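hey can u check if this looks right to u? its 634 residues, i copy pasted from the old doc so theres a chance i mangled smth
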Amino acid sequence: MCGIFAVIGSREVSSIILDGLRKLEYRGYDSAGIATIDRSKTDQIGKLNIIKSKGKLIKLANLIKEKPPQGHVGIGHTRWATHGKPNERNSHPHLDSLAQIAVVQNGIIENYRDLSKSLKLKGIKLTSETDTEIIPHLIGLEIEQSLANGLSPNGQTLLIAVQKVLTLLKGTYAIAVIWSKAPNALVVASGQAPLVLGFGEGEFFCASDIPALAEFTRTFLPLEDHEIALLTPLGIELYDVDGNRQHRPPSLLEGTELTADKKNFRHFMLKEIYEQPEKTQFWIDRFLPMDLPLKNSLTFPISTYVLEKIEQIQILACGTSRHAAMVGAYLLEQFAGVSTKVYFASEFRYAPPPLSPNTLTIGVSQSGETADTLAALRMEKDRRDSINDANFSFHHLGITNRIDSSFGRELDNVIDIGSGIEIGVAATKTFLGQMLSFYGLTLLFASYRQKRTPQEILDLSNDLRLIPKQQTDLIKKHDSLSREIAHMFVETKDVIFLGRGINYPIALEGALKLKEISYIHAQGYPAGELKHGPIALLDKHVPVVSIAPPGVVYEKVLSNSQEAKARDARLIGVSTSGQGAEMFDELFTIPKVSEWVSPLLTVVPLQLFSYHIAAHKGLDVDQPRNLAKSVTVE
């Protein structure tokens, strides 16, 4: 989940690295650091300059501003702590014992304890709590051996040393390495963690994500799994895991939104909430044309065979993506008639269900880099490929906001949710985009399976076309209401969210948003489960948020809410203003809509509710503590 940016060329690189890291801070902001090689004109051996700081990137930027490190090659890192506390000692870059080799890493080295023991037996003292620190020490030992064998201190020697060390590592990694004795070389490598090369004019880059490169070049090349590259001022050499030279043309980035402007909004999160009606309309224009039947006009990357023959669907996702998947599973099963289950991607690898024939596996990830989800998809492909039966072939689909991600590279069939760049770590418009993708899939399956009448399919389509206007009205109304009542919850320690049916996942998502950005403990429950234990928590200090749109469970949710009210809980409703709404102490009204489309509306006031509580508390809404936007470690 950390961010890596590195560059080599003919100009000073410290400011370039800092600009690249700013585009990657969403990946982690516990600490940051930079290393460059300062070389005099007459000396081929350089000196490492290291600057590191605890906390967000602005602290590192201030240090660099005071005394910019010199050098035409450098590596930078913004950290999400995995091993060791988020302090300066554990910040990247990490050095070998001679302070000649600097390394930054994203990922987790699973066998670092064993490797650490072997290093200590060789007399090497480790100074941090991280798994990364073993890498420069191991590279240093390999280089020492190479030099003893007569090799020269240059980029090829560094490359060979890194190649040997990578064979010792178990786990996931993306690394960038520089060596003061080879100041014209930068070595980078990827092992199940994203890393992208950038081709500039007289300089070359690598970064954890393409947006970090967009300011400097539009020509890029993602590293494939277990590839390694040597970057020099003259070009890039690419090698596979066996050391064979690779020749693969780069791609040109065109028409992709890679920058974001906060405009007049206080935070990116609020801006992104406000963008949701526009993104919904964009989805409708692209995926929900007026032509009928829908199966002839919906342009999703899914085959007719899958639509007609698949017997069940399994969805793999984590966090907010999993909540969107739960809405999708409800739609696919209840509206389209396809048996569908949602799995925690993080658990799927270790307790997979028995293999069943004619199964579609859907992976859902906002970033397209979620390590748990990618690993689960790879495992599922491997175990299905191991069975020599066409019914067990790997039918798959990815849903992501980043078509240029690992999802896009590894999966043949990917739905681009088209939500645009999202800066706020707590997902809002990407959650909406994921849900909309499942609505499209539901309409397709229902059309092909004929589980619904043409009129029912048309009714759902027409209801979806009304959503953008309804979302716009809700945002205007509930932005003000949320701001007005936020002060009431500043001292709140616990909140319970209730929902039923298709809105149970919205209760989970509402609770997650509140936890993520306000640091208030919140829990979502199926409303009927309140009396089976959680009701013991209720008193006047524990607010209850009930999601009660019109539908078959409307009266049931109102009854469950009344149970909370009887225990003195402050009751916040997301419902219509009809009969029964008077029980709510605060009411976020929504229009009377079909229960099928209600999640696209009920989530909006919950996003605003969480946002304004966090903003009123003066918290960093866009970069909440301990979180990262792209979860690239398991």
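The chain is about 35% helix and 20% strand.
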